[in-house]
Design goal:
mainly alpha
Length: 211
């Protein structure tokens, strides 16, 4: 999801990656950094894969190998497995809203602290660029599948059952709207507070309005 950034750690941190994997992580990061810088400088449409490759000091084919389409650079991240692992680590009897609130705050924290401009840029592009918005919807569906699998393990419910399918996609659609609202309102709100508000709506429904 475009506004989210993976936590730097998970409840049980894996062993340090090998040299090959570290090189892949470094290359992926360089491509992303180059793309974000160019998009800030000249806009999304004017930024080409060739320019990104030149700025990142890799070949265009390397960029395409890591990110098949330009919008994937904006949308793709590594937060999904970390989110699922974090959710699985929560106490089994914890209310689902509290678990999700903790997990999403954990996911958002590093991006807001370490790369606030990139986090805001990704959310803005999800509103302004149709190709990014469309790819975000595809990514949301994939994240929803991971979410319902993690929830199924906690609840014992069928991950392919209607209830978890509806619930997981309601959560993911809500988070997409949070990202759009955050960008459309000039990022003036703390997105973590917006996530909390969205979870309250999912848990209790919308406000009933004035009596």
């Amino acid at each position: 999801m475009a506004c989210m950034t993976a936590p730097s750690t998970t409840p049980a941190d894996p062993p340090r990656p090998g040299l090959r994997e570290r090189k892949k992580i470094k290359t992926r990061g360089a491509i992303r950094a180059a793309a974000y810088a160019l998009i800030e400088e000249q806009g999304y449409d004017a930024t080409t894969i060739e320019q990104i490759a030149d700025r990142a000091e890799v070949s265009p084919s390397t960029v395409s190998r890591y990110f098949p389409a330009k919008e994937d650079i904006v949308v793709t991240d590594e937060w999904d497995p970390a989110l699922a692992a974090e959710l699985r680590s929560r106490p089994a009897d914890e209310p689902w809203a509290d678990s999700l609130r903790h997990v999403l705050r954990t996911a958002l924290g590093p991006g807001l602290a370490e790369e606030p401009e990139v986090t805001r840029l990704r959310a803005r592009l999800g509103v302004e660029v149709p190709a990014v918005r469309a790819r975000m919807l595809q990514s949301t569906a994939a994240t929803g599948r991971l979410l319902r699998q993690a929830l199924a393990e906690r609840s014992g419910l069928d991950p392919e059952g209607l209830e978890l399918r509806v619930f997981a996609m309601a959560v993911m659609s809500g988070l997409t709207e949070v990202s759009h609202y955050w960008a459309e309102t000039g990022h003036r709100h703390d997105i973590r507070d917006l996530v909390d508000r969205a979870l309250v709506v999912l848990e209790h429904g919308p406000p009933t309005g004035k009596p």
